[in-house]
């Protein structure tokens, strides 16, 4: 414990260190020497010598302080020259915009590098040692700069996009899958326009130019969301086994979305859905702000429409997978097909019908649907050619009525021919209907 007199002496000299640069510690021998001399002078009670001692020590401290300041200034100049050299070299390899962006931050990310602490000019060898780290720093800065610029340009471009979306969503290709404004706004084509560099002009014509390629926009959207949909099926039960199916169509594996056993259930309305009709189901559209977005553009859309529900995009959180029952799989086997690998198109090509309890004639999909239900009757057989022909006529009637009603409800436009009515079933927003996916049930003739 330092005595009170010693503490007084220590604080007297300590107070002359600049507060901002004081390191918080001194040499032990120096402190001991000051305290010993202080005690000697206090004991002999010679105020003149004590004053001279204090004065000399203060002058020494001030001299050291001045020397330290000069050294620090010199070191700062060397570091600044080193920094300017690094900046010059980075500009020489194309990082000018990033350096201009960092200037407002006094090049803090560059200054933090370990090699920048050396108080000497930058040598070629030192530059080669730090070049890789500096390039990584510039790459991160470029991403930050572009995001910063995008946050300013997006609000300016939004009015033109908002107006264009109302037009693009009415395109016939978009209506087949009931694309929402959010689906189109998140498409790569729209994103590319909205996220163009700040110095590029973007206006209404940039967006309306997409009218001619909406078919491609929709196809790419279907491909993208189909990959998400496959995620619900990997891994899954197929054909009663636990075989895992990959998300892509490979040489030895059937695309799980194309399998005859694949079906879904809407968790909102409990509607049975099939691919690709599930992509058009209205219940699967959710406000865009409910979806998480990591990028600036997605966050912009979510934030802008947080209090509005009309910017909708597809969301598979509301969709469940319906596993086929063992009895339903037996219906496929009754046709001589393997339920593990047979596709819906292959089953359609068979053009078979099933008769349930000698009362109802059903397509294969309708039969599987009813066989999955707990109360279903398990008396099944394949329909004869005559029964198939009769069932097809009744199915055409159902299809005609459906294709007649949907456009009439939506647009009050009558479809004049049976062929046109059949086509309109898919073109009028009914892609997710049971009839559009081949689910038909008619009464057996004579019942």
Provide the β-strand percentage band: 5-15%
**Number of discrete helical segments:** 17
How many whole angstroms does the radius of gyration measure? 39 Å
Please report the distance between the alpha carbons of the first and last residues. Answer: 110 Å
Structure commentary:
α2 packs antiparallel against α3 (47-92), α4 crosses α6 (124-168) and α16 (385-411) packs across α17 (418-427). The chain contains 17 helices and 9 strands. The protein is an alpha+beta fold and 447 residues long. The chain has 3 domains: 4-115 and 125-142; 169-201 and 214-322, no CATH class; 326-443, no CATH class. The strands form 3 sheets. It has a 4-stranded antiparallel sheet. The longest helix has 46 residues, at 47-92. The N and C termini lie far apart (110 Å).
Task: Give a brief outline of the structure.
The chain has 447 residues and is an alpha+beta fold.
SSE blueprint:
Blueprint: H1 4-14, H2 28-44, H3 47-92, H4 96-103, H5 108-111, H6 124-168, H7 172-176, H8 181-185, H9 188-194, H10 204-208, H11 214-230, E1 263-266, E2 272-273, E3 285-287, H12 296-304, E4 312-314, E5 319-322, H13 326-334, H14 344-350, E6 353-356, E7 360-363, H15 364-372, E8 380-382, H16 385-411, H17 418-427, E9 441-443
Antiparallel strand pairs: 1-2, 1-5, 3-4, 6-7, 6-8, 7-9
Helix pairs in contact: 1-2, 2-3, 4-6, 13-15, 16-17
Question: Key terms for this structure?
Answer:
single chain, alpha+beta, 4-stranded antiparallel β-sheet, 9 strands, 54% helix, elongated
């Amino acid at each position: 414990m330092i005595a009170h007199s010693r503490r007084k002496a220590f604080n007297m000299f300590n107070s002359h260190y600049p507060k901002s640069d004081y390191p918080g510690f001194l040499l032990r021998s120096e402190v001991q020497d000051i305290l010993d001399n202080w005690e000697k002078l206090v004991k002999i009670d010679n105020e003149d010598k004590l004053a001279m001692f204090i004065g000399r020590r203060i002058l020494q401290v001030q001299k050291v302080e001045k020397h330290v300041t000069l050294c620090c200034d010199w070191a700062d100049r060397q570091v600044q020259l080193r920094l300017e050299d690094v900046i010059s070299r980075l500009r020489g390899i194309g990082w000018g915009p990033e350096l201009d962006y960092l200037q407002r931050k006094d090049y803090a990310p560059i200054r933090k590098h370990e090699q920048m602490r050396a108080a000497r000019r930058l040598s070629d060898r030192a530059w080669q040692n730090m070049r890789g780290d500096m390039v990584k720093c510039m790459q991160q800065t470029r991403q930050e700069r572009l995001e910063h610029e995008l946050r300013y340009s997006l609000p300016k471009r939004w009015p033109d996009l908002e107006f264009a979306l109302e037009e693009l969503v009415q395109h016939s290709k978009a209506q087949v899958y009931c694309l929402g404004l959010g689906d189109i706004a998140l498409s790569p084509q729209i994103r590319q326009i909205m996220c163009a560099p700040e110095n590029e002009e973007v206006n209404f014509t940039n967006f309306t130019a997409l009218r001619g390629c909406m078919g491609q926009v929709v196809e790419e959207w279907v491909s993208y969301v189909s990959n998400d949909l496959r995620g619900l099926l990997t891994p899954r039960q197929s054909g009663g086994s636990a075989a895992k199916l990959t998300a892509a169509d490979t040489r030895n594996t059937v695309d799980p979305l194309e399998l005859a056993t694949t079906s879904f259930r809407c968790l909102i309305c409990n509607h049975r859905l099939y691919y690709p009709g599930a992509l058009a189901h209205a219940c699967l559209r959710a406000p865009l702000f409910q979806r998480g977005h990591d990028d600036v553009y997605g966050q912009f859309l979510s934030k802008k429409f947080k209090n509005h529900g009309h910017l909708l995009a597809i969301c598979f959180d509301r969709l469940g997978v319906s596993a086929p029952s063992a009895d339903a799989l037996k219906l496929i086997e009754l046709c001589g097909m393997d339920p593990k690998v047979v596709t819906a198109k292959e089953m359609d090509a068979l053009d078979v019908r099933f008769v349930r309890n000698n009362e109802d004639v059903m397509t294969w999909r309708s039969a599987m649907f009813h066989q999955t239900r707990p109360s279903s009757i398990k008396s099944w057989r394949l329909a004869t050619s005559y029964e198939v022909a009769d069932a097809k006529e009744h199915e055409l009637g159902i299809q005609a009525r459906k294709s007649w009603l949907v456009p009439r409800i939506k647009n009050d436009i009558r479809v004049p021919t049976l062929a046109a009515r059949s086509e309109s079933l898919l073109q009028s927003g009914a892609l997710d209907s049971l009839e559009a996916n081949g689910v038909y049930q008619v009464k057996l003739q004579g019942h």
